[in-house]
Amino acid sequence: MKRRDLLKGAAALPLLAQTMLGNTTTRSKLIKPKRLSPGDKVGVIAPASGITPETWDRAIKNIEGLGFKPEVGKYARGIRSFLSGTDEERLHDLHWAFSDTSIKAVWCVRGGGGAPRLLPAIDFGLIRRNPKVFIGFSDITALHVAIYQNCGLVTFHGPVGTSTYSDYTKMHVMNVLTNPSAPYNIDISPVNAASTSPYYHSETLVKGRGRGRLIGGNLSLLAALAGTKYALGDLKGKILFIEDIGEPPYRIDRMLTQLRQSANLRELAGIALGVFDDTGPTAAANAQPVIDVFRDRLGDLGVPLSYGLSFGHIRDNMTIPYGIEAEFDADKLSLTLLEPAVT
After folding, report:
1. What is the pLDDT of residue 2?
2. What is the model's pLDDT at position 25?
3. Are strands 334-337 and 325-329 parallel, antiparallel or unpaired?
4. Alpha carbon of 253 to those of 17, 45, 181, 258, 290: distances in Å?
5. Is residue 325 annotated as part of the catalytic site, yes or no?
6. DSSP string, 148-186
7. Other residues' Cβ atoms within 10 Å of the Cβ of residue 106
8. pLDDT block averages, 10 residues each, the chain of length 343
């Protein structure tokens, strides 16, 4: 073999390693979508699970109540087992919402399951050429991670169409998307702070403050992406936010262990935990052990850590821009956005 062929092969090794081990870097240029205005048309899609016609009515009223004009994707109202449609149908609506220039935002109607199935076929170039607000949470975490890693686009971990738009939820989603300011502080919801449920009891597990870009989402999805090319990328200096619902302590322990063994969590600038609510019959019995799991699995990392910030599968749900610079204060249980997330 000629020397230049060897050099070509050696030069290709880093790219090959990245392909095999997953995307470990994020595009250097951060892309911010344009801010929303009253009357803007938003595309409503169901890239994961479907919902009933009655729930659709509520979702449309929710979005209209924010002052926007919802336009539902062609296949979004479908139901196919636990999904809203085939992979091709759900992907069609995602691409439609980003490519239609009259649509200013892409609003996911719910999470559920199935979003990771779309990742290999997503046209990230299309999304990069047509940046706009993309919002949702839960199973939508897979799309947040993949879009940020492959496009550098700031997306929004926030309420889906079917969420309860309480005063707290509505205030933060509108401030972040339509009336941005910096610094912008997001404290724990007074309603959540007053809750008697042990799951809403906030606690500083490791004192300190950290500053960095926000990444994260639903724990089940972050664990499911670990080891794939869609896994969380470079964690150095990032603030990781995590939430989930209905998961017993042993499963939370397992997923956190998977994250620890697949990524260097010690490089993080901080870990902000949301409310891991559980409405099942064993909720009261599991509440304290859940806190113990977080303390055991994350408390030794040497990074600021606190539990109970107001985000996740809960009524009062803050909107977290994925990828922007923020400061996390574990002592004060607060998150401060240091830059606007929209232009």
Report:
1. 41
2. 40
3. antiparallel
4. 29, 33, 37, 9, 9
5. no
6. HHHH-B-EEE---TTS---HHHHHHHHHHHHS--SSEEE
7. 28
8. 40 37 54 98 98 97 98 97 97 98 98 98 98 98 97 98 98 98 97 94 97 98 96 96 94 97 97 86 68 96 98 97 98 98 98
pLDDT value, residue 286: 63
Burial environment of residue 223 by CB neighbours within 10 A (0 to 12, 13 to 18, 19 or more): buried
Catalytic (active site) residue 88: no
Q: Which of 248, 225, 239 is nearest to 311 (CA)?
A: 239
Query: Out of 49, 84, 138, 220, which one is annotated catalytic?
Result: 138
Q: In this structure, are residues 192 and 186 in contact, taking their beta carbons and an 8 Å threshold?
A: no
Q: What is the pLDDT of residues 222-262, one digit of tens each?
A: 999 999 999 998 999 999 999 999 999 999 999 999 999 99
CB 298 within 8 A of CB 290: no
Active site residue 89: no
pTM > 0.85 = yes
Looking at residue 330, its pLDDT comes to 98
Position 289 scores a pLDDT of 83
Q: Is 335 helix (H, G, I), strand (E, B) or coil?
A: strand
The one catalytic residue in 71, 89, 243, 325 is 243
- Among left, alpha and beta (phi > 0; psi -120 to 50; other), residue 334 is beta
- C-beta separation of 262 from 227 below 8 A: yes
Q: What are phi and psi of 206, to 5 degrees?
A: -140, 120
Q: How far apart are CA 8 and CA 325, in angstroms?
A: 38
Give the pairing type, strands 239-243 and 209-218: parallel
Active-site annotation holder among 95, 144, 157, 313? 313
Domains of the chain: 41-163 (3.40.50.10740), 184-337 (3.50.30.60)
Burial bucket for residue 317 (CB in 10 Å: 0-12, 13-18, 19+):
buried
Q: What pLDDT, on the 0 to 100 scale, is given for residue 278?
A: 78
For the chain, helix (H) and strand (E) counts, in that order, are: 10, 14
Cβ–Cβ < 8 Å for 139, 113: yes
